[in-house]
Design a protein that fits this description.
By secondary structure, this protein is mainly α. Helices cover 67% and strands 0% of the residues. The chain is built from twelve helices and no strands. Helix 5 runs parallel beside helix 9, helix 7 runs antiparallel to helix 11 and helix 10 runs antiparallel to helix 11.
Length: 263
């Protein structure tokens, strides 16, 4: 599956595979930031976008409910990964960046935090916080969290940043120059009277914050990358986006379970 997604879906001999692998890691004369953005856009928001992106082009309450439930587990791991970065570096700008990110996610910097907006959205659909907190994540979500936890424990700080903050590109609204064909969600949702205000508030916060968060992190990675092994950074990114793809599918799966009254 990894080969199909990242290398080729057609049968290839040893020599062809070697060339394809070399091309995969080739920076093409650019930095690691461009390599990550181009790879991510191609896989998630290009001509053949992720199924979750397609689902988000039209408002669907069940998809948003599935999003709310599974994303809660993602956010719990997110702050663990950010704290791992802080613990593994002495660079003040890196530590400051991650602390600000964690505050935004969990405490809000004077506004409602990302996790509070998520739980508000769930409650607006009739899913209590207690129920979410007592829920076991779906298999793909659990596998993804375990992989991210492993990266946080074993990898260098810069590799953890690449693995996690690259994922914020999913909601970045400024990726058209990189070949993005789809927005994260249909922006018409903000003017749609059928979309609850709690959903709009959650989407709006991400719409405003993820541009700065994702690119800010990639700028830091680019800044310090010359002092680290580029291929290790690429490996961490590839490992993370592989499980992220499956995690997004878990959002869809949870939404279908809710629609079919299986949750």
């Amino acid at each position: 599956m990894w080969l199909n997604r990242n290398i080729t879906k057609t049968k290839a001999d040893k020599n062809s595979l070697e060339l394809l692998f070399r091309n995969l890691y080739d920076l093409n004369g650019e930095g690691i930031k461009s390599w990550i953005v181009n790879r991510f856009v191609s896989e998630y928001r290009g001509n053949n976008p992720h199924p979750f992106i397609i689902k988000m082009q039209d408002y669907n309450k069940y998809i948003m409910e599935g999003y709310a439930v599974e994303h809660y587990f993602f956010l719990k791991q997110w702050v663990r990964s950010c704290s791992a970065v802080i613990s593994k570096t002495d660079y003040k700008d890196v530590q400051t960046y991650e602390m600000e990110n964690m505050v935004t996610e969990y405490f809000g910097n004077g506004k409602k935090s990302h996790i509070e907006l998520l739980l508000d959205m769930a409650e607006g659909f009739g899913i209590s916080r207690k129920k979410i907190m007592e829920t076991k994540p779906l298999k793909n979500t659990e596998k993804a969290i375990n992989r991210w936890r492993e990266i946080a424990q074993k990898n260098e700080w810069i590799e953890i940043m690449a693995a996690m903050h690259s994922l914020e590109l999913i909601a970045n609204s400024a990726l058209r120059p990189y070949g993005a064909r789809y927005d994260y969600f249909n922006l018409g949702a903000f003017d749609n009277n059928n979309v609850p205000e709690t959903v709009k508030a959650f989407l709006l916060e991400g719409y405003h914050s993820d541009n700065a968060h994702s690119i800010g992190a990639l700028n830091i990675i680019e800044k310090y990358s010359r002092d680290y092994n580029i291929e290790n950074i690429q490996d961490a990114y590839l490992a993370s986006t592989y499980v992220f793809y499956n995690y997004l599918e878990a959002r869809i799966e949870r939404g279908e379970m809710i629609e079919n009254k299986q949750y």
